[in-house]
Each structure stands twice: as C-alpha cells, then as structure tokens.
C-alpha cells in the first residue's frame, strides 16, 4: 500500500495501533450508489453506517432536481436502468450537484487514480465509471475521492480530534466531521456558528450560511445546539440526524429559507442569551438583548419594559411576551400550509420496506397560534429545533422514521 493510500485509510478507519475496524463494519460500508426500484431518484442504503455519505449525496441530488423543477415524487429521471439515454440524462443532472459539493477531480478505478481538469472531463470520467460507482465499493470510492480532492492535511487541520477517524470503528457511524465535510466542504467537528474558545482551545464551527441544512434530534435532547448557518440554509433541504442515522427533509417552499424577518432575528438573539433553551432570560439581561436588537435601551425605558413583561416581579423575561411587545403581528411570509417530503434510505425504515419519498403537509404556526397537535414523533421533535410550532400531516398511515 502506498503512503498516500495508507494516510487515506488511517483517516477514514483509524490507525492500526488503535485497533482498526472490524470486518463486519467494513462490510456494511461496501455498497454502491444504488437507486430504489420504487423511487428512481432515491438512493437505497443496505445497512447502518454509510448514511453519512449517502444522505448528503441524496441532499445534493434532491437540490438539483428541485432546481430544474422535477415533477412530484421526483420520478422524472431514472438511474435504475443501465447507462442508457435516460440514465445518461440523469447523470448529467446529478453531476453538477456533486461538483458543487466537493469540486471532485479525483476518481478511483481498479486501484488507479485519474485526474481531470474540467467539468466536461469529469462528466466523461463519471460516465465511464458508471458501473464502478454503482458497484460494491462505490460509496467508499466516492468518499476516498472527496478526501483526496479536499486534501488529507486540510481535513486534519479542520478536525478537532485528529485521532478520531471519520468512521467510528466501534459502531460504524460516520462522524460529524464527515457529515460537515460533505454538507459544507469543511470537516469541522461542531455544528455551531463560528469558532469558540474552551480552556484555551479553539473549537471550529460553521463559518457561513450553508447551501443545504442540518438539524438533529440531539438538540431537542439538549446534547448540542445547531447554529443558524446550518439551520437556515440557502435552500429548503435539511439532513435530519437521530442518534444513529441520517435522513432528509425537503420542500419546494422557498419562503422557509427567505431573509430573516425582524421577529425571527429577535427570537434568535433572545435565544443566544438563553443557551439552555429555557424560554426565558434573567431580567438583568433584558437591556443587553434590547441593545443587540438596536431597540431603545435607555435605563428608564428598560425599567419600564421590565415592569410590563414581568408584572409579578419573578425576575425573568419570557420569550413570547417579549416578541409580542416589540414585534406584534409579524408576518413570516410562510404560507398556511405547504407540501413537504421525507427520505430514509433504509428499506426496513420505510412503509412496506419500499424506499420512497413520504409526502406530507406542513404548517408552521406562530407562538401565539392555537396548537393543532398532530403527532409527537422524532421527525417532528427534530424539526421543532428550527420551527418550535411546526405541525405535520403525512399521507401515509404512519409517520416517517428518523432511524
């Protein structure tokens, strides 16, 4: 094995001195990019683990299909056949989204490395290797290509713990660094905005608005806090993370990712002073919040507001009354209801074990609106980390699964 290949393997699987990876976990990752027979643009995942690559690729595929206005169920293109005219057209559709993701220039075939210098050359290479990336190691070859394109040293400089491999050697799950690499192009280990200092260490986060987003159930359990750059991407497509799996939520409703309204900005700023998500702040912080929002913050006025928002002198300011006081009747521009879709690549996680997009209707209410109370599933709890008052009505008998 060449030194370069060894570095790639160590980065992905861990150094041999750390125990390496078991044969069973490696086997779970040996699959290609295979599309569902029931949904011709939905990638299928055979076992747990490779969702860390498959879900991000699916996100970029869906983004491309949304951009070109593919019809409902996104069945306008087929990749399940051989490299016919139809599948070639689909490949032309997929490639630009992948190029936009990682500027892919290196492709593997039979252990050799190929270098291309243009997008047209890349398309020719992808088409020539059609059966290779559909084959048993297509996902891993794609991952290795991403690593070589980004640069091993560049990835190591971004990962918080350089001893942590991109694939967990015990459970076989992809790390957050791997997910962030495929979503943002940067293999940082955290999901908050910007960098943070902790005990003299600089912990890297996300530095600009992502094109596609990321939400996680772990935030609803208060294990982490996803920043606005991932929560509010440029396009209405999000990877959803559970404890063990990644799926995708998306819609055509662009108002969901429109410019931040004043009330949305106020909510974000208020919550930045409420890191525990209690829904309130100590009244001593009210002046700081008002200053951060460029509201009048003269001491006499702040004192007057405190008395109005905390008439019982409890010493706290609630988010709801604060927003009503300063941003009443704010229209978010989001329609009353709109269609949404959920994708899960695991057969066993889908109704009748058919990998298909699950269609539903979503309502994003305001904090003052009466609650509809549809369901309380992990998908909804995950989405509530961005839209606290979202409601979902699915067309299937059961809600889609995060796992």
Spell out the key features of this protein.
Recoverin, domain 1, 14 strands, alpha+beta, 403 residues, six-stranded mixed β-sheet, globular
SSE arrangement:
Blueprint: H1 3-13, H2 23-29, E1 34-35, E2 43-44, H3 51-67, H4 85-102, E3 106-109, E4 112-115, H5 119-128, H6 130-134, H7 138-150, H8 152-158, H9 176-184, E5 196-198, E6 201-203, E7 213-216, H10 217-220, H11 228-231, E8 237-241, E9 246-250, H12 262-272, E10 280-282, H13 286-292, H14 299-309, E11 316-318, H15 319-326, E12 338-343, E13 358-364, H16 378-383, E14 390-394
Parallel strand pairs: 7-8
Antiparallel strand pairs: 1-2, 3-4, 5-6, 8-9, 9-12, 10-11, 12-13, 13-14
Helix pairs in contact: 3-4, 3-9, 4-5
Detailed description of the structure:
It contains 16 helices and 14 strands. The protein is α+β, with helices and mostly antiparallel strands and 403 residues long. Among the domains are: 156 residues, no CATH class; 65 residues, EF-hand (Recoverin, domain 1, Orthogonal Bundle), CATH 1.10.238; 61 residues, no CATH class. The strands form five sheets. Strands 7-8-9-12-13-14 form a six-stranded mixed β-sheet. A two-stranded antiparallel sheet has the order 1-2. A hairpin with a 2-residue loop joins β5 and β6. α3 crosses α4, α3 packs parallel to α9 and α4 crosses α5. The chain is globular and about 70 Å long.
């Amino acid at each position: 094995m060449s030194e370069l290949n060894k570095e790639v393997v160590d980065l992905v699987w861990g150094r041999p001195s750390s125990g390496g990876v078991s044969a069973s976990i490696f086997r779970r990752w040996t699959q290609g990019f295979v599309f569902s027979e029931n949904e011709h643009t939905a990638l299928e995942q055979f076992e747990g683990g490779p969702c860390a690559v498959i879900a991000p690729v699916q996100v970029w595929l869906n983004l491309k299909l949304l951009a070109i206005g593919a019809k409902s169920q996104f069945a306008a293109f087929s990749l399940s056949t051989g490299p016919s005219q139809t599948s070639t057209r689909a490949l032309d559709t997929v490639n630009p989204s992948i190029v936009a993701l990682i500027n892919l220039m290196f492709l593997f075939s039979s252990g050799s490395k190929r270098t291309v210098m243009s997008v047209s050359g890349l398309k020719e290479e992808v088409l020539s290797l059609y059966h290779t990336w559909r084959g048993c190691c297509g996902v891993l070859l794609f991952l290795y290509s991403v690593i070589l394109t980004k640069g091993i040293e560049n990835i190591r400089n971004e990962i918080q713990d350089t001893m942590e491999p991109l694939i967990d050697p015990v459970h076989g799950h992809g790390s957050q660094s791997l997910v962030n690499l495929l979503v943002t192009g940067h293999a940082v280990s955290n999901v908050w905005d910007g960098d943070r200092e902790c005990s003299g260490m600089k912990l890297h986060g996300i530095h600009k608005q992502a094109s596609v987003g990321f939400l996680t159930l772990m935030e609803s359990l208060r294990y982490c806090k996803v920043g606005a750059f991932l929560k509010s991407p440029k396009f209405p497509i999000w990877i959803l993370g559970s404890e063990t799996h990644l799926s995708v939520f998306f819609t055509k409703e662009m108002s969901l990712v429109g410019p931040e309204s004043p009330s949305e900005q106020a909510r974000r700023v208020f919550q930045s002073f409420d890191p525990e998500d209690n829904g309130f702040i100590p009244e001593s912080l009210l002046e700081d919040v008002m200053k951060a929002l460029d509201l009048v913050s003269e001491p006499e006025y702040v004192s007057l507001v405190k008395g109005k928002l905390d008439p019982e002198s409890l010493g706290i300011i609630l988010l709801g009354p604060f927003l009503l006081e300063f941003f009443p009747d704010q229209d978010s521009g989001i329609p009353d209801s709109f269609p949404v879709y959920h994708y899960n690549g695991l057969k066993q996680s889908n109704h009748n074990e058919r990998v298909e997009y699950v269609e539903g209707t979503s309502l994003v209410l305001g904090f003052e609106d009466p609650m509809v109370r549809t369901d309380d599933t992990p998908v909804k709890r995950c989405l509530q980390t961005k839209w606290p008052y979202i409601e979902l009505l699915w067309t299937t008998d059961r809600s889609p699964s995060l796992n």
